[in-house]
Each structure stands twice: as C-alpha cells, then as structure tokens.
Amino acid sequence: MRCEKCAIATRRAVGALGGTRAVDVSVSANTATVVTSDAASTVRAAIEGAGMRCRLIGSGGVDGEVFGGDLAAALGTDARTLRQSVAAVAEFKGEAYGHGDVVGVVRLVQVNAETILGEATLGGLAPGTEYEATIRTYGDTRRGIESAGEVYDVETATAEGGQRAGEIAVVVSDARGEITLPATILSDGLKTWDVIGRSVALRNTETNASVVAVLARSAGVGENHKKLCQCDGTVIWEADEDFLPVAAKPSRGTSGPLFERGMQTVRRGE
C-alpha cells in the first residue's frame, strides 16, 4: 500500500466479506489486521482483488491474554514460548517436496485454552474426489504416511466423542481439484502446542494415495514484521514463488549460490 486510497480500497474489500468483524489498516506499516471468521485465503483474495499484493504474516485468537503466565505455568513453559505456539501451518509445495501436484496450506489456530480452529486451502487434487485430512503422530515424512504414524490422538478425545483428536475433516474437491475448508472448530483434545513438529496427511479415500507435510510454528498476530526472509533473501512482500524450492528461485544479488555440490550452504556477502 502506498497511500490512503490503497487503505480505503483494502478496508472496503475486506469489510464486504460476511465474516469480517473489524479491520485496521496501516499504510506506514503496510499491514492490515482483520478480525474475521472467514478463511485466511478468502481475506487474501479480497485484498488482492482490490489490487494489492498480500501475504499472511500472522494469525491467532483475538484475546491474547488467555495465553498468559497462568496457562504457561500449568503447561510447564513460559508465556513467551506459549504465545509462539498458538498457531501452526503445514505447507504442501508440489513435486519438488514430495507432494506430487498438491500445493496449499493447512492452518491451525488456538483461539483459547479449549478451542482450536482448522482451515485449509489446497489445489492440485483430483477433481470431485473425497479427501481425508488428519494430523499424524510423528513429523517423519521420509516414507510419507507410513513413517508419519497413526492419526494423532489423546485419551480424553476418543473416550468422550469417539473421534480421534487428529481428525481434521473429510472434504470433496471441486471441479478444479481444489479444496477450501473454512475455519472449523476441531476436537477440544487438540492443542497447537502439542502438535507442532508432528505432520498433516491428506489422503485420497478412493485410491488411498497420500501426501504428508510437517506442522511448523506460525507467527501470531503482530509477531512478524520482517520484510526479508533470512533463509534465502526473498522479499516477503514481493515474492510470487512461495511454493518453489530455493534451488529453483532466481539468483538474488551477488552473494553466491545457495546450493553447491549437493550441500546446502549460505555465503555471506563480502
């Protein structure tokens, strides 16, 4: 965003969405903070439809105070670590990452100590086909769903409702081979801080073919203001190559290659 006209267009686009409760746009910080029940992909599409480039840099519950010292102490950690563990994301990045044609994300957000929301935006699937999305016990994806283990569960979840905690959803892809799962309340036995480092599996229920991606920490609201990724020099606000492997991205600057003789190395600029 470059001026107040951009901010007005952004507010108008997001405000028109059915799930929007509040929008705060800052031209100086180049950010828009949205309180909504819509999927992140829906909000992003609205902003991009207004002519802006958009990247999700943080997500979380509205009331951050619920993740304070008392809950942290009960979990045996500190408040800072707890607040860094209330959002998680699994990214599917296509063939180069062992995900076949599948690209997209599955996102988890802990709203409070009892409630967790899950949402997904995925493409590259077989059209009109049923898929099962689950959290698996392990984060080992070397042999796909086999090494990722069984569906994640906790004793209380199965005992109370018969559904395993790691069962996210069973959904059918549309005619374009895409799935959009809006924010959905998941099992109360599921906590983001317990599943970070595990994995998400997407399984075709007809063919049993599956892909798996690791669940990683995702920044909370207001926790990520960086504009340059330290991993590969990508300018976050301008990149259109989020789902390309580093080796396939255009060279940036003169600091040298990131890959050399099969080993991943980073050269510092002289």
Automatic annotation (TrEMBL):
Q: Could you give a GO molecular-function term held by this entry? A: copper ion binding
What CDD domains does the record point to? HMA
The HMA domain covers 1-55
Q: Which GO terms describe its biological process?
A: superoxide metabolic process
Cofactor names from the entry are:
Cu(2+)
Instruction: From the UniProt annotation, give the residues forming the signal peptide.
Output: none
Superkingdom in the source lineage: Eukaryota
Q: Which InterPro entries match?
A: HMA_dom, HMA_dom_sf, SOD-like_Cu/Zn_dom_sf, SOD_Cu/Zn_/chaperone
Pfam families, alphabetically? HMA
Q: What is this protein called?
A: Superoxide dismutase (Cu/Zn) / superoxide dismutase copper chaperone
What is the species of this protein? Ostreococcus tauri (Marine green alga)
